[in-house]
């Protein structure tokens, strides 16, 4: 920041901005950041509030849930957008400096069995199939997800206030992703958090 300020004064131009993309998980936050000190220097902080679950786990989980599920315990209850944002704000990051990361892709799994309820927390046996264009196991672009929906995948909405959609197919594929509906909810929620008011499900349409 000192160098950027000196450069701006010497060149008579606006100062370069200093920003950082930061982690959302508690272990990474504790190990890597002095939030209050960083926030004094950074112009803004981009919270990587996604990749909270994926095929590295042995159960189905959404990439970027807004809230925790009722049946989650321990560290799992901290893997959601709401908790991560509040953790950074409570740690000393001014809400006006905090950018909430939004995922425009999905994390996919292969379900262990089609006999389960296809719900979050159910067993998974590995990554979902690679997409035709992105060609990466466990990861799908939004347009590939839209193609799955057009081809008969079943879309469900998590009714426990996680505020996100997911889909499954008859060949045991499961994808957690964000769409227009969930992005709209997260944007409205972020306006509440920026105002430093605790969000609640009742206040978000």
UniProtKB/TrEMBL annotation:
Chain ranges of the GH18 domain: 1-205
SMART domains, per the entry: Glyco_18
Matching InterPro entries: Chitinase_II/V-like_cat (IPR011583), Chitinase_insertion_sf (IPR029070), GH (IPR017853), Glyco_hydro18_cat (IPR001223), Glycosyl_Hydrlase_18 (IPR050314)
Annotated Pfam families: Glyco_hydro_18
Full protein name: Acidic mammalian chitinase-like
Gene: LOC106809276
């Amino acid at each position: 920041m000192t160098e950027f300020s000196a450069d701006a004064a010497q060149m008579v131009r606006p100062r370069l901005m200093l920003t950082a993309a930061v982690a959302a998980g508690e272990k990474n936050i504790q190990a890597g950041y002095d939030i209050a000190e960083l926030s004094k220097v950074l112009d803004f902080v981009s919270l990587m509030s996604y990749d909270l679950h994926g095929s590295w786990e042995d159960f189905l989980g959404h990439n970027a849930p807004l809230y925790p599920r009722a049946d989650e315990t321990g560290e799992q209850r901290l893997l959601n957008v709401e908790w991560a944002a509040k953790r950074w704000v409570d740690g000393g990051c001014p809400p006006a400096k905090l950018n909430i990361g939004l995922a425009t892709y999905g994390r996919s799994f292969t379900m262990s069995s089609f006999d389960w309820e296809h719900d979050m927390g159910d067993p998974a046996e590995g990554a979902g199939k690679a997409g035709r264009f992105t060609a990466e196991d466990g990861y799908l672009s939004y347009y590939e997800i839209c193609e799955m929906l057009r081809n008969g995948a079943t879309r469900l909405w998590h009714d426990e206030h996680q505020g996100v959609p997911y889909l499954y197919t008859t060949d045991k594929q499961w994808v957690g992703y964000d769409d227009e509906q969930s992005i709209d909810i997260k944007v409205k929620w972020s306006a509440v958090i920026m105002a430093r008011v605790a969000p609640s499900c009742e206040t978000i349409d």
